[in-house]
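Deviation from plan, reported transparently: zinc ion complex.
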Amino acid sequence: MNAMNDVKPCGTCKQGFSGLVITALLFFAGVEATAELSPEEASMARFVDANTERTIDLLERTVNVNSGTLNVEGNREVARIMAPEFEALGFDVRWSALPPETGRAGHLIATRDGERGERLLLIGHLDTVFEPDHPFQTFKRDGDFATGPGVIDMKGGNAVIVLALQALDSVGALDGASITVVLTGDEESPGRPLEISRRDLWDAADSSDIALGFEAGSVVNGIDHAVVARRSSSSWQLEVTANTAHSSTIFRDEIGAGALFEASRILNTWYGELRGEQYLTFNAGVLVGGAEARIDDTGERGGASGKTNIIPERVIARGDLRTISQEQLEAARERMRHVVTGSLPGTQASIEFTDGYPAMFPTEANYALLAQYDEVSRALGYGEVVPFDPGARGAADIAFVADRVDAGLCGLGPSGSGGHTAEEKIDLRTIPKAARRAAVLMYRLTR
Ligand SMILES: [Zn+2]
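Because the crystal trials were delayed, the predicted structure below was used instead.
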């Protein structure tokens, strides 16, 4: 299917007319010749190719509107650009605003009811990690590539959702299908409490059978990977208090060890006892301690003061915890708590855990869904798609619905590099690739 990749965007095409025709003929012949594709599927594949430039325009327009997670109006604006795309396909579209106190915009929800086949939930997000004060703000195209905030994470994925749905519509396959699209406005840093910020996603999942996440696809050693599992991500905060006195009296029975030795004991014991378990990691990210220590509401900034001759009274440390399942998370928390209770003399410690992203466990149903996606990919001439290492992918919105649907698969978006950095880049050729795969997969799932 390299022929498709060689088709240049119309505006920059340097080929002569005959070259174009030959390329097109080869390309169309390739699609028709693929025995495993039905005529409708082959037709959708051609539709995707003919409409890719329009999709790149949509991507450019959404990337050029800043929608950092905290930029409420920016997220609302990106939703305004996306909404007509779904309305044109017969979806009921609504904006679900989050309460102002969450500091998050809300979610765009598009639904199309039907009775045929599996009920699908398609997940994307409007927000990016780049707030308005960041220098990285605009879409810049260079041939088959483009840079810009959110080009792969994940305005490119949103654009692929639209293109794939348009392809389904082009053969009348949306009629009778049950499809819900949720584009959240706070994926990169979900609003709190989660019971409010993830309610719409949960509701959509409760009336769906299969969740498809359009976060960026991964290419490792030239082979495409999709995501059947994601680890949970949550945080912990450790607080240690201790008797204070002149340093010359440290370790006396009535004085004790001080808060810094106790904090060190806890962290070091965790390191010795919990480290190395498969799929479990925990990080200590920030620590302040001394005669006095504080950390602000963001949990990311703080300060401390102390003297070499004063036994320190207070330590605060914060970090994260990542697991492949809820069971592993609970077990790790229990072991961490146990270590915390074994205080050194003259010290007390407490730990608080805050829920974040749940895990998406690598179920057999997820692997079966991947097998279907792999089959689709081969039928389209793109070669195999294999599972990404369950321990290697970060958190994403699909994890919030993983245990509410029968099966889920993520990483169905276009590919690129440099996510969450000012080097974020998309390979634009992966837009039609991802859209064709998604369209054919959805076609088959909704038969
Ligand atoms: Zn993302």
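Residues 34-230+360-445 form a domain with the Aminopeptidase fold (CATH 3.40.630.10). We consider this an acceptable substitute for the interim report.
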